[in-house]
TrEMBL record:
One of its GO terms (molecular function) is ribonuclease E activity. Keywords: Hydrolase, Magnesium, Metal-binding, RNA-binding. Gene3D superfamilies: Nucleic acid-binding proteins. The keyword Ribonucleoprotein does not apply. InterPro entries: NA-bd_OB-fold, RNA-bd_AU-1/RNase_E/G, RNase_E/G, S1_domain. This is Ribonuclease E. Its cofactor is Mg(2+).
Length: 470
């Protein structure tokens, strides 16, 4: 590839490189920033989401034998100790059907009880990590969860596909009245049960909790009913093995480690379905310039059995960071100020209790109709606010101080516009209301740490090759 090389630091892109950077396909980049490993999702050359990897984040999804240390009846919750002496928060709403290993569950949760719990959220600031006693295992076709018997279907499945899948499971006597038929006879295939017995295991002695099923989008693409059932029985066998093993392991044992650190991110962005975050639903290319990350990605690809679009980027003249302007994008994502095209700007200030976002008119020159001017700024600001919520992973209570507009019609328009924008967010986001003073109340579910905290907690590593000193 021919390329003009100049001594000055500015980078000149060829037409081919410019087209590559502006491609409409999403790009998932695995690289490092200031010595910190990260994953960056770009769409139409805009940074949509970013993740920094740390040891703590690797606990999400891990399953432990925990011990109830104390009950907080006024909070309808309890505190559970897991490996390493870490104390976690468990809402009793997420423990209606726990799997106890030291006694039979009689409807009560008691101090000293030992039970299986799964980490669902990291510790954040002064808040402890959260766990659930409703365990969840998944593969590309299904999600099995304890604590329910209901069968759910991805909303992206057509009625035709949904009915076809329902028919397969009904004919196999696995589903009845939209519930998964319970019991070892339904959940274990004859082959899986014989395999367990050959290993000296006795699955018949397990007292199974209630188990429910979610049928994912990709199940509708399975080549045959046989493939579907193989994946179902394989996943149910994993769950039964997990429950069986917990009967004979010590308290605080990690029964299932967190999955490959890339798995959740890749599934979220690369596989169309209920967890897909691609706005355009176009194929995603995975690119990395780190050899160790490339090897790990290829290992995951092999384990999954699906062909992924993975590319190892090597260019001595133009780094991956320079090609996609990653330094500038990440600096902006970590800055408290966000400029709008109109000349206005946002100021984002996280506090202990909530996040405040202030909308300022800045350099925008008002016309004769001030209310119309403020309407335009607010609508533009709303689009950027929705983007920043996702990019920075802001959660909890969020108050946006929009420029006050006298027109009630304009306020309702802004409220409706924000609801439409946040509907694209993969994380549950609720637009509560907007006050007469222009304060919009938003709540967003807490999953993982905010981007700034991820960056601070991510361990910094030396970069001997110097290719990521951006």
């Amino acid at each position: 590839m021919s390329r003009k090389i100049e001594a000055k630091p500015s980078v000149t892109l060829t037409d081919e490189e410019a087209a590559l950077r502006k491609t409409e396909r999403g790009k998932l980049l695995f690289t490092s920033y200031q010595g910190r490993s990260c994953a960056l999702f770009l769409e139409k050359d805009r940074l949509v989401e970013a993740f920094f990897f740390s040891g703590d984040a690797d606990k999400i999804g891990a399953i432990y034998i925990g011990k109830i240390k104390s009950l907080a009846k006024n909070m309808d919750a309890c505190f559970v100790e897991i490996a390493g002496g870490e104390i976690c928060f468990l809402s009793l709403r997420n423990a209606t059907a726990p799997y106890l290993v030291n006694r039979r569950f009689d409807g009560r949760i008691l101090e000293g009880d030992e039970l299986l719990v799964q980490v669902v959220r990291d510790a954040q600031k002064t808040k402890k990590a959260s766990v659930t006693a409703h365990l969840s295992l998944s593969n590309e076709y299904f999600v099995l969860s304890t604590g329910t018997t209901k069968v759910g279907y991805s909303l992206k499945l057509s009625n035709e596909r949904k009915n076809a899948l329902k028919r397969v499971f009904t004919e196999m006597a696995l589903i009845q009245d939209d519930c998964l038929i319970q019991g070892r006879e339904s959940l274990l295939s004859i082959a899986e049960e014989e395999k367990m017995k050959a290993e000296g295991l006795r699955p018949e002695i397990i007292s199974l909790p209630s188990i429910g099923l979610i049928i994912r989008t990709r199940a509708g693409e399975a080549e045959s009913a046989r493939v579907l059932l193989q994946h179902f029985f394989s996943l149910s066998a994993q769950l039964i093995r997990l429950l069986y093993g917990a009967m004979y392991r010590n308290c605080f044992t990690c029964m299932r480690a967190a999955e490959n650190r890339f798995k959740g991110i890749i599934e979220q962005f690369c596989f169309e379905g209920e967890s897909s975050s691609c706005i355009s639903n176009l194929p995603v290319e995975i690119v990395t310039d780190r050899k160790e990350m490339y090897d790990e990605l290829k290992t995951y690809e092999s384990e999954r059995g699906d062909k992924l679009n993975i590319r190892f980027y090597q260019d001595t003249f133009l780094s991956l960071s320079s090609l996609y302007s990653l330094e500038k994008k990440l600096e902006n994502a970590l800055s408290s100020h966000v400029w709008l095209k109109s000349g206005g700007f946002l100021v984002i200030e996280p506090t202990e209790a909530l996040t405040v976002i202030d909308v300022n008119s800045g350099k925008y020159v008002a016309g004769r109709d001030a209310d119309e001017t403020f309407r335009k700024i607010n609508l533009e600001a709303a689009e950027e606010v929705a983007r920043q919520l996702r990019l920075r992973n802001l959660s909890g209570i969020i108050i946006v101080d929009f420029i006050n507009m006298r027109s009630g019609q304009y306020r309702q328009e802004l409220l409706h516009h924000m609801k439409e924008l946040t509907a694209k967010d993969r994380i549950s986001t609720r637009i509560i209301d907007i006050t007469p003073l222009g304060l919009m109340e938003i709540t967003r579910k807490k999953i993982n740490k905010p981007l700034r905290e991820q960056f601070k907690l991510c361990p910094r590593k030396e970069d001997p090759d110097g290719i990521n000193k951006i």
